[in-house]
Design goal:
The protein contains four helices and eight strands. The chain is an alpha+beta fold and 201 residues long.
Length: 201
């Protein structure tokens, strides 16, 4: 009985790492701790509230968060990430890869529907795949040259996970993922500034 309960808890505990915006990467932990992540479990569901502030405008941040066709270039745990179709205000996206915890790798694949409010909000829902449930809302607020990015997510996995993966492990991986996103935003901002300076010569 107790083993069965532990398996159910382990099955759900990594859900957010797969669903927040994209799968987490296997990077070293970021040097700074300004990325705030709160993880809670409710039965087989996992919820997360996360925030980070990036010195870019909302347009630049939104471009990275929605660049699904190139996302595996800066999130290496992705083997596949592509837009299947587009509508006037949304996307259908397929992603697949592996989330790694040390020696253990959890494969995943899913299709998600993403509703877009340009430069302001993303709302996504899993419609098929190895994840039983995945709802994510991302909002962007700009002030004084910075964009505050807020994630709220609820998810439940449909695969077995090893014992010992707790909320702290999920939070660490989410911070790594968000740090990778921030690094890409800053890289693109720097490239745009350099290109503008070159054009002005």
């Amino acid at each position: 009985m107790f083993a069965s309960l532990d398996l159910r808890r382990a099955r759900s505990v990594l859900s957010l790492a797969l669903l927040l915006a994209a799968p987490v990467g296997s990077h070293a932990a970021p040097a700074d701790d300004d990325i705030q992540v709160k993880v809670e479990r409710h039965g087989e569901s996992v919820t997360v509230h996360a925030q980070l502030s990036v010195p870019v405008d909302a347009r630049q941040a939104f471009a990275v968060l929605t660049d699904y066709d190139h996302m595996k270039q800066f999130l290496p745990d992705l083997d596949e990430s592509r837009i299947l179709s587009r509508t006037r205000d949304g996307l259908l996206v397929r992603q697949a890869g592996k989330v790694r915890f040390g020696w253990f790798a959890v494969p995943f694949e899913y299709v998600r529907r993403v509703e877009l409010t340009p430069d302001t909000r993303l709302v996504s829902h899993i419609v098929s795949g190895s994840v039983k449930k995945g709802d994510v809302t991302t909002t962007l607020t700009t002030s004084n040259g910075r964009t505050l990015i807020t994630y709220d997510s609820e998810a439940a996995m449909g695969v077995w996970l090893p014992f010992g993966i707790g909320n702290g492990a999920i939070a660490d991986h989410l911070r790594q993922d968000l740090d990778s996103m921030r690094t890409e935003m800053l890289r693109r901002k720097g490239a745009a500034i350099a290109a503008g300076a070159a054009d002005a010569r």
